[in-house]
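[job 4471] stage=fold_predict status=RUNNING
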Amino acid sequence: MSTNLEEKRLIKPKKVEEKKAEEKSRFNILTIKQFAGDVKNEFDKVAWPDKKHTFGSTIVVVILVMIISFYLGGVDLLLGKLISFILR
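[job 4471] inference complete, writing structure tokens
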């Protein structure tokens, strides 16, 4: 009977130490599974745009990027020529 009590006493602190080690570690398998489940639930709540809206938005972004790049390229060219004229 006393060996049973001693075994329980020896095993119990070990389990408590393991739990404390798991609590300290943020990257245990249970928290990763819970996080993945939470992410999946949040993705289900997202209202995703349809293909037509996504394509239209992409075209707008590409056109705006081209316009801004031409504008900045022109300003860079003009300022470069102005600076070279001033330095001569």
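[job 4471] summary: The mean pLDDT is 84.
[job 4471] exit 0
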